[in-house]
Structures are given as C-alpha cells and as structure tokens.
Write a structure and sequence with these properties.
- By secondary structure, the chain is an alpha+beta fold.
- It has one domain: 2-Layer Sandwich (60s Ribosomal Protein L30, Chain: A).
- Helices cover 23% and strands 28% of the residues.
- It is built from 2 helices and 6 strands.
- Strands 1-2-3-6-4-5 form a 6-stranded mixed beta sheet, covered by helices on one side.
- Helix 1 packs parallel to helix 2.
- The radius of gyration is 14 Å and the shape is globular.
- The two termini are 22 Å apart.
- The relative contact order is 0.24.
- The mean pLDDT is 96.
Length: 128
Amino acid sequence: MKQVIATSAAPAAIGTYSQAVTHQGVLYISGQIPLDPVSMEIQSGDIRAQIVRVFDNLVAICEAAQTDLSNALKLNIYLTDLKNFPILNEVMSEYVPEPFPARAAVEVSALPKGVNVEIDAMVSLAVE
C-alpha cells in the first residue's frame, strides 16, 4: 500500500501529484524545481543557487520520510542546458555521498515555470 509523504519544508505540489509516495520500502520523490517552499517563488540567483534549492527540497522530503540522500537509489536530472552539468555534479557531491546512486541527466527544451533544472528521485527507506 502506498503512503503519501508531504512536508511544508518543501514546495507544495503545483499540479496533480504528491510531493512523494512510499511503496515497499522505496520513497518516490516527484520532480523538484527551484521553488522556495515558503514563498513558492523561483529561487533567485545563478544556476548553482537554483540547483542547491532543488537539493534542499529533496532533502526536506527525505527527512519527512525519515531517510536521507545517502540512501538514494536513482536520480533523474533535467537541465535546459547541459553546459551546467559540471555545476550540477559539484552541488550533487555536496548532498549525495559515495557510493553515488544510479542517475540520468538529460537536456530538455523546457521545464515547469520556465526553470532550468528539475530532479526527481527514488530513495530507499531501509538502512542497509
């Protein structure tokens, strides 16, 4: 049976989805964009600041489910410009310890609200 995970420490859903759901020991986090959870405004600043905001949102959802990004199994990363890939890797290494999860990173033509980055995740709830 799935359980919905919701926290005010991450942006509220802007569509017909839950922030995250759990099922059979896995937390499935919906795509997070650089929205501030309080103002629901897009994070100001450069791409690094926006990627940091996305990871902060992922961390908040993990905490609500009593896990963390060290248990990440898979990240799907969407960038509107792959030139930002090195910055993404730098920020990711600050939030996700080795051994790193499986990952996909793709360039897309557009993302919700005109942002430049979106990340979704699958995270284990079990400590191994």
